[in-house]
Amino acid sequence: MPETRKVFIKTYGCQMNVYDSERMAESLVSQGYAETEDPGDADMIVLNTCHIREKAAEKVYSELGRIRQLKSARQSEGKETIVAVAGCVAQAEGAEVFARAPVVDLVVGPQAYHRLPALAATARSERRQVIDTEFPDEDKFAGLPERKGPRPAAAFLTVQEGCDKFCTFCVVPYTRGMEISRPVAQVMEEAHRLVGQGVREITLLGQNVNAYHGDGPDGRPWSLSKLLAELAGIERLERLRYTTSHPLDMDDALIEAHRGLPELMPYLHLPFQAGSDRILAAMNRKHTASDYLRIVERVREARPDIALSTDVIVGFPGETDEEFQQTLDLVREVGFAQAFSFKYSARPGTPAANIDGQVPEDVKADRLARLQELLQSQQSRFNAGCIGKIVPVLFEKLGRRAGQLIGRSPYLQAVHAEAQPGLLGRILPVEISGAGVNSLAGIVR
Ligand code: 5AD
Ligand code: SF4
After folding, report:
1. Is 294 exposed, middle or buried (0-12, 13-18, 19+ CB in 10 A)?
2. Is 173 close to ligand 2, i.e. is its CB under 6 Å away?
3. What is the mean pLDDT of residues 8-24?
4. Residue among 14, 15, 16, 53 whose CB has most ligand 1 atoms within 8 A, to mutate
5. What are the structural domains, with CATH classification, of the chain?
6. Largest pairwise CA distance in the chain
């Protein structure tokens, strides 16, 4: 028996990276690795990285600094450590990663990670740095092992990757590549498998998930709404969600799915990025503020209680204070249950990085603070509005206190309640008794 190697994986960034890390772990486990939570005990360390903003990429390099010390400490004990950089920093920077952080043995992009076990074996046996940032012809997903359970009640399932929208601030079209959709049959098979392993809620993932157009069993491309309807037919799969969407691809059928499909949870993450039409055009968003409002109106007509979430950027190059005010106006007009907001971060290779009129850091910080104050007050108000209501909660994990479980409401709020661990994976009515900015407390009824 070969000795079991241990792998430690650290994930940065978005939910798709969380999904990718799970799949990387599974592929290494199928090759005899065991996962560890302790990087000091790991024969292989994988950083699954994010390149969306400068800070995200910098975090990776400071972590690599710490890993360098750890690797040399292990080396002095005669232990080998393979250090791998995966994800979007790997894709964007390629061999530059080795130059900036010589501790790295392996660089693997988001479209090549099904080759990770083989690449690690090469790095180890040939004692050299190995890189794979190809966008291979073969299907990455077909090259990954079947998913094994048991697992928590809520799971991610990537159905679409990449983006063709080319917003001028965004690296995604370069790091994740052009938009591709997984075939319907492949998605259905994975969903059935997850449900068999205890999953009751699936969130479909894609950088532009509502542009999904995977090959259907009828030989035609299927839309996301059609895929959702098919998934809703899986027995014991009780909840469906999808993220992230672009306003342009919010088609009639998808909006109607929010009315007609009970499994589809009343929650929509729909980034608008900015409230000024001039800035939206400079961002190449291909929609205006009023287009966005019109979509919101239609979605709310279909599902009046829907919780809306969004992404917003402040300080895009050339943004004036009046234009920023239009962002605040749009937020006030919509009323969000949740939101993610960011200072614009110039990303090398993207068109906006070269636009004149980059906004000073202190102006961006001030705008972000003002925006976040407004968004937080909306979020608190939305949560407080749940007090006294009975909402169905899917219990997903143990709480920090004994006897407590944490679950999610239909509106994606975290809900804490006293409940026995045997109730994990069940959906129970919970009367909401308290609300904070980020979570609710309740009593199982
Ligand atoms: N600077 C700041 N925020 C960005 N995002 C994407 N690129 C940038 C950037 N260069 C934000 C967008 C996107 C979210 C995932 O990250 O709001 O929707
Ligand atoms: Fe980036 Fe989203 Fe725009 Fe695509 S739609 S370029 S992923 S911000």
Report:
1. middle
2. yes
3. 97
4. 53
5. 5-132 (3.40.50.12160), 141-384 (3.80.30.20), 390-444 (2.40.50.140)
6. 68
The whole-angstrom separation of Cα 428 and Cα 362 is 47
Question: How far is it, in rounded angstroms, from Cα 216 to Cα 226?
Answer: 10
CB of 53 within 6 A of ligand 1: the answer is: yes
Q: What are φ and ψ of residue 32, in 5° steps?
A: 100, 0
Least confident of 40-54, 59-73, 129-143, 368-382: 129-143
Q: What angle do CA 157, 163, 164 make, to 5 degrees?
A: 150
pLDDT, tens digit, for every residue of 43-61?
Answer: 999 999 999 999 999 999 9
* Closest to 57 measured CA to CA, from 15, 24, 85: 85
| Helix segments in 41-81, DSSP class H | 54-76
Cβ of 347 below 6 Å from ligand 1: yes
Provide the H-helix boundaries in 240-360.
Answer: 252-260, 277-282, 289-302, 321-334
